[in-house]
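Sequence in, structure out. Go.
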Amino acid sequence: MRPWRTGVAASSVALLAVLSSRIGAQDDKPRVPLDDVHPRAPSTPLKIDLGPWWCPVCARDGTIKNEPRPVGMMHKSAEEVAKQVGLPDGTWVAIETPHFKILSTLGGTTARYSDSVFARFDLERLKTITPKFSFGPEGAKLDAHQRLHLYHVRLERQYAHFSALTGNTQPNLGMSLPYEVYLFADYSHHHSFCDRYIGGRADKNGVQWHVRDPPNFILFSTAESIVNDQVGRGDGPLANHVFHNVAHCLIDGYNNYYRETPAWIEEGLGHYYERRENPRFNNFCWAEGKTPTQFVKPDWETTIFSIVRRGRDSPFPQWCEKLQPGELTDVENGFSWGVVKWLVETEPLRFTKMIEPMDDQKRNLSAAELIQEGFGVSPSVLYQRWREYVLASWSGR
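Output:
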């Protein structure tokens, strides 16, 4: 008997539970949003904390009553950062949420229901923060301030899911300070920020950076114009791009460790959180190298099934030890998503047990040893079980 199950994915069980509860629910009873499902316990609602938050616009409008205070970013004030990057006054806003500090120069947008399976629920939460907007047949038109808080909602939802998935209740998952996210409208300001604070990094895509000097934190910077050129126009492609890269930040900040994450875990999680929102907007961060040729269309399951069925996949032990995402081939990159999705949705407890020792400097476990720690098997055995799952579950797609 196998020591761990490979049955119906937890997300499917959760969806059935939610749909069943909705069918039997009365109109006057509260309904559980689809994304409010704890990844370790499908019958348990996921708690998503949107507050307390600090926003100078909300304070000026009277939405919040907090005492005025500067938003600290890059170990200084956001005002100083904006000045050094060359942002004119009145073109940017910085806010603090429970686990993020976000600086944005993004303009208004239309947030469409088709952007994400969670879009309507995100807009309902947004209305509790900035109530002065209405829903249309396709979504909601948002001004720049409302759009910034939509990312407030999205990032806290992603954080809540990852925190629950890993059972990590430390402040900021163990980092000293909240995660910092810079959402620039134009590449020029993203480039100026990277040039001023990071330097020597390719910035034609989003950039993550770990500030190791105490108190340490992790940041992500990007520009909407980059996503417009590489993925597509609209808020949906940008949101998927942000989800992908913030997932890297969360796993890199997990337990405040200072070593590299195995590439298959890091990229697998990035694509997992991106495609959990919408599989149409495929994102490939700069660290992955060139865009994979076989994983551009939305249906990655059929592509993976075809490769596995024909036996054209490379053995997992040959690539699970790679530390740099750019070392993964295009097929290995797509397979990283498939393996991580399978583990997260069927064995979240063992997945957490696998990644928990990554920050142990004394043991310094290899990827094979991490897999043994979490699942009690070798990479080849784990991979064979995943291949069996793919052949059995994705054959009808």
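Check: Residues 1-32 have pLDDT under 50 and may be disordered. Residues 48-258 form one domain.
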